[in-house]
Specification:
The chain has 20 helices and 7 strands. With 624 residues, it is mainly α. It has a 3-stranded antiparallel sheet, with no helix packed on it. The longest helix is centred in the N-terminal third of the chain and has 56 residues. The chain is globular. The N and C termini lie far apart (69 Å). The C terminus is likely disordered.
Length: 624
């Protein structure tokens, strides 16, 4: 934004950068998720193919193939053309591909597959950008919080896509409008990002000297933000980094299982309506945002325990809870739809803390080379996305409860084992290969420090003898030091060191007070909204007893034999004459609408009612 006068955002320009990066990352994520939901609407219209199950699976898997291909340009060009240019290019690709999906779907399956490939190609930039922006723009002390906030894009993508898609799919605008809205939002976001973002805070006209000092406070020589060649061999033979990769297999599997197939699971297995599926699918991601926002500051400031201990604790809280919830879902009975939704919510909520667990470990260990480590994590994620749809289609071809139990059992074991390995080998301190090697400059040539001492002395002597060259070198050195030190005229109080979030001082932290109040208010709001939408009565009568204000009533409709939760879906089909039930369903009825019924004892029912294969429900009492 060189054509505008510099504006200092109260020494918080780094958070404006954070906001823009979250916005762009969210829409990159949301664009790939749109099909996961709209495919439910498309299947009800005209978009069908010869082998529906296989071809739908490929529409999911091709995203991973695109991400695999897109990862290599990220590795190659991030350090050369910079995050600003590369991220914008990838953003324009996903926006264009998303806008063309309705046209591609009408032209044929191959065209639709190509657009999905381009969306996946752009997904490759997701994790490297998180790492690179955090490394360049965040202070060391706030890196966990900064990374956690950026990774909110994984939740925000679902929060935006699911309810918006649910409403638009069932509206007169149709499923095609979902893609046009996503594409428009993506274009606007990336234009704003390109205009404002700079690859280094030193190059940004809106960054003050005070803010620059805060950003660089606590960085060691190894935290050099300049362009340095990646020590590929050292990185790929580092055991802590391999711990991150292995752990991400489990984390990525759990996240993608619910992100890709969450709407299908809610609709086909838990039997939520399409309109309710969008909202119900978004609720866990809203809760996950709260857990992520709270966990970031705690991870950064809880200095009463070591950094590694914090990472291990959050790994257990995130991935351990994820594995536990998935395993519980594997053993839940078929009628426990409410318990299934609770476990579904807890699993997604706990996975939100991955950014302050394994991902933070990667950022602390790899430092300036984090973009490469995150690119490999993106590669791992791509392989998971590639393998997961055929795996789910193979095991859960009919989307029955038993088939999904098998999927949950396998995935739960994988998540537990992979993260157990990380707990053993995970670290939280910079690796040796991140530390800058001392260098000697002679005639604009850089010489490594392993030159024999005698040769070094000779070079220094020659440089000193050349007064002009020595003066230039000294000026450059002082300029570098000045960018990393506080001006004597500017007093900076590093807020990152003022608080220690431990049990005795947690409530004293003003940021934590605000976040706790915000999270509590959000939870209350969600519960109240859920009570009026997704979890709205009728309740099942328990021993013919209902909550206060409700009475036991027999509702007319069709239901699958032995499957309680499906009655909730069919309850709207009231008895208006004869109902033709689908195959495998039974018919139940009441001859008097609103009659209060008791148990069917010896074939006797309440007046105006008949005995039959029925379920009891609680309905609101009517005022006479």
């Amino acid at each position: 934004m060189s054509f505008l006068p510099p504006v200092q955002f109260g020494n918080y320009t780094r958070f404006v950068v954070l906001l823009l990066s979250i916005l762009c990352l969210t829409f990159v994520m949301a664009n790939t998720l749109a099909l996961n939901f709209t495919i439910l609407c498309m299947s009800e219209e005209r978009v069908e193919y010869e082998n529906g199950t296989t071809e739908k699976a490929w529409l999911f898997s091709i995203v991973a193939a695109g991400t695999l291909v897109g990862t290599f340009p990220v590795m190659r060009f991030t350090a050369t053309i910079g995050v600003r240019n590369l991220f914008t290019i990838y953003g324009l690709i996903t926006a264009t591909a998303t806008a063309l999906i309705p046209l591609a779907a009408s032209m044929g399956y191959g065209w639709l597959l190509a657009m999905r490939f381009l969306e996946g190609f752009s997904m490759a930039i997701l994790f490297p950008v998180m790492g690179a922006v955090t490394s360049s723009w965040s202070s060391v002390k706030q890196s966990g919080f900064y990374m956690a906030l950026q990774s909110l894009c994984l939740q925000f993508g679902a929060i935006f896509t699911m309810p918006v898609s649910g409403e638009l799919c069932t509206s007169s605008l149709g499923w095609t409008s979902v893609y046009y809205i996503h594409a428009a939002c993506t274009y606007v976001s990336f234009i704003l990002f390109y205009l404002f973002y700079r690859n280094s805070p030193r190059k940004h006209s809106c960054v003050s000297e005070k803010e620059l000092t805060v950003i660089h406070h606590g960085r060691k020589d190894n935290a050099n933000t300049g362009k340095q060649p990646v020590p590929y061999k050292a990185v790929m033979t580092s055991l802590p980094i391999w711990g991150v990769y292995i752990s991400y297999i489990g984390a990525g599997l759990g996240l993608n299982l619910f992100m890709q197939f969450g709407p299908t699971y809610l609709n086909k297995v838990l039997h939520y309506e399409v309109s309710n599926t969008g909202f119900a699918g978004a609720v866990p991601y809203l809760v996950a945002c709260g857990s992520k926002i709270l966990s970031g500051p705690i991870s950064d400031y809880a200095s009463c325990i070591s950094q590694r201990a914090r990472i291990i604790i959050f790994t257990f809280l995130s991935q351990g809870m994820l594995a536990l919830c998935i395993l519980v879902m594997a053993f839940l009975p078929e009628c426990a739809s409410t318990a299934g939704f609770v476990c579904y919510t807890l699993a997604i909520t706990s996975s939100g803390m991955t950014s302050v667990a394994t991902i933070k470990s990667a950022q602390l260990v790899a430092c300036q080379h984090i973009h490469f480590v995150m690119a490999v994590c993106s590669l791992v994620n791509s392989i998971i996305i590639l393998v997961l749809p055929p795996f789910v289609s193979l095991i859960a071809s009919e989307n029955t409860h038993g088939q999904w139990s098998t999927i949950f059992l396998i995935c739960g074991i994988i998540v537990a084992v992979t993260n157990g390995f990380f707990i053993i080998v995970g670290r939280a301190e910079p690796a040796e290969w991140t530390k800058a090697k001392p260098t000697i400059v002679r005639n604009n040539q850089i010489y490594p420090a392993h030159i024999p001492p005698l040769a070094v002395e000779e070079m220094l002597k020659e440089i000193k003898d050349n007064e002009d060259e020595y003066a230039k070198s000294l000026t450059v050195e002082k300029a570098v030091q000045k960018t990393l030190t506080v001006d004597r005229g500017v007093q900076v109080t590093p807020v990152v060191e003022r608080y220690s979030i431990c049990p005795h001082s947690l409530i004293e932290h003003p940021t934590m007070k605000f976040l706790i109040v915000l999270f509590t208010a959000s939870a209350i709001l969600l519960v109240s909204v859920l009570s009026e939408t997704v979890l709205k009565p009728p309740y099942l009568c328990v021993d013919y007893k209902c909550p206060s204000g409700y009475e036991c009533d027999l509702v007319c409709g069709c239901y699958k034999s032995g499957f309680m939760s499906s009655v909730e879906k069919e309850v709207k089909r009231l008895c208006n004459g004869t109902i033709d039930c689908d195959e495998g369903q039974e018919y139940f009825y009441s001859t008097t609408k609103g009659a209060t019924l008791g148990p069917c004892a010896d074939g006797k029912c309440s007046e105006g009612s008949e005995c039959g294969p029925f379920h009891f429900f609680c309905v609101e009492q009517k005022n006479n």
